[in-house]
Design goal:
Helix 1 packs across helix 3 and helix 5 packs across helix 7. About 50% of the residues lie in helices and about 15% in strands.
Length: about 190
């Protein structure tokens, strides 16, 4: 294996692993002695320095790790603090609206309203910090209760949950009828004696 290929393998392994990799592991993968690996890594660091690259290979005891140059940390901090962009699909919006209007609510209650599993939607909304765990319901199994966060209020431009739009009774009746039509149930149950 030529030196260029060895450099490519070392760089790929260190990049993919993220954490430090022991020199013995690199030696096993490359099938070359440790002193040769050290010499190649020294050349790689010289090359990174001459090209003014944003990375270098740090030695940590008997291991190596691909790292960002310390003088570039301020840029990493800026990108880490940048607001995350996320996309709210129809399923996420539906789940979020149920939680917003019914909170505190359990996942099972959300699923009963939606008619489908809401595990993924609830997990994504937690990840986006739009909902949070509020505690546990005092019932068998002690299911988690969910509610909205301050981030939810900021995202949707409301000061409090009281500012959420309310549906008028006619709209609610229309929605109820549409939902019943979708599931194929009659709106009235008649019992004859």
């Amino acid at each position: 294996m030529n030196e260029k290929k060895i450099m490519a393998v070392i760089e790929a392994v260190l990049f993919a692993m993220g954490n430090s990799v022991e020199i013995s592991s690199l030696g096993h993968v490359l099938e070359i002695p440790e002193p040769e690996i050290r010499a190649v890594i020294a050349k790689m660091n010289d090359k990174y320095k001459k090209q003014d690259r944003g990375i270098y290979i740090a030695e940590l005891e008997n291991a190596f790790q691909l790292c960002t140059k310390p003088q570039l940390y301020e840029y990493l901090i800026k990108i880490a603090k940048a607001p995350q962009k996320y996309v709210l699909t129809d399923a996420l919006l539906e789940t979020l609206s149920i939680i917003a209007y019914k909170q505190p609510v359990t996942r099972l209650e959300v699923e009963k309203i939606r008619g489908v599993s809401s595990d993924h939607a609830v997990n994504r909304l937690l990840e986006f910090n739009l909902i949070q765990e509020l505690g546990r319901l005092d019932a068998p199994g002690r299911p988690l209760l969910f509610g909205t966060t301050e981030e939810f209020l900021r995202t949707f431009g409301v000061k409090s949950l009281g500012d959420l739009p309310m549906l008028n009774p006619d709209q609610m009746e229309d929605f109820r009828k549409q939902a019943e039509e979708e599931i194929g149930q009659d709106t009235e149950v008649r019992v004859e004696i």
